[in-house]
Amino acid sequence: MKVKRALLSVSDKTGIVELGKALQALHIEIISTGGTLRVLREANVEVTPVQEVTGFPEMMDGRVKTLHPHIHGAILAVRDNPEHVKALVAHHITPIDMVVVNLYPFRQTVANPQVTLAEAIENIDIGGPCMVRAAAKNNAYVAVVTNPGKYKEVVSYLQKDGGFSTAYRRQLAAEAFAHTAAYDTDIAAYFSQYITKGENE
């Protein structure tokens, strides 16, 4: 399946400009959010803001931006299911073929002994894991990339074939689920300290 549309939203910006330029050269539409959008635009990469896709602004200090049917329907649609295709058409949803996301730096944040609970909570990513898990679930049609170290490999496949094999999408999905599992494990470990301290408020 050819990649025509990609969503890029990353905390770790390593290699994202190079990836964006490569996707643009391949005429792949790029959707992006917040800081990723700014970095790409500063590098003269053409990007569609996520709010133009959803019709809603980013709100609540960025807590809500990608949690919308025009994003998740675009990721989760089963492309050869007639009812899913009908829903895409009826609601003017254009499929997303690749999701490039890595998550807020929770582990690094809580490694600081001075971090407050409020600061830790604001570094719990919500939209990111939702997109990662949605894309990984729908790996039959969508590629999900969570590791910047994969960007060059991903670009090489796109330059050669325009898309990815089923086996490669499954490999990326496995890495994505491992990424979100490790992330949630870190969050659970952080909150467990309040249980062991007997803080029940």
Automatic annotation (TrEMBL):
<dbReference type="Pfam" id="PF02142">
    <property type="entry name" value="MGS"/>
</dbReference>
<dbReference type="GO" id="GO:0004643">
    <property type="term" value="F:phosphoribosylaminoimidazolecarboxamide formyltransferase activity"/>
</dbReference>
<dbReference type="GO" id="GO:0005829">
    <property type="term" value="C:cytosol"/>
</dbReference>
<keyword id="KW-0658">Purine biosynthesis</keyword>
<dbReference type="InterPro" id="IPR002695">
    <property type="entry name" value="PurH-like"/>
</dbReference>
<dbReference type="InterPro" id="IPR011607">
    <property type="entry name" value="MGS-like_dom"/>
</dbReference>
<keyword id="KW-0808">Transferase</keyword>
<feature type="domain" description="MGS-like">
    <location>
        <begin position="1"/>
        <end position="146"/>
    </location>
</feature>
<protein>
    <submittedName>
        <fullName>MGS-like domain protein</fullName>
    </submittedName>
</protein>
<keyword id="KW-0511">Multifunctional enzyme</keyword>
<dbReference type="Pfam" id="PF01808">
    <property type="entry name" value="AICARFT_IMPCHas"/>
</dbReference>
<dbReference type="GO" id="GO:0003937">
    <property type="term" value="F:IMP cyclohydrolase activity"/>
</dbReference>
<keyword id="KW-0378">Hydrolase</keyword>
<dbReference type="GO" id="GO:0006189">
    <property type="term" value="P:'de novo' IMP biosynthetic process"/>
</dbReference>
<dbReference type="InterPro" id="IPR036914">
    <property type="entry name" value="MGS-like_dom_sf"/>
</dbReference>
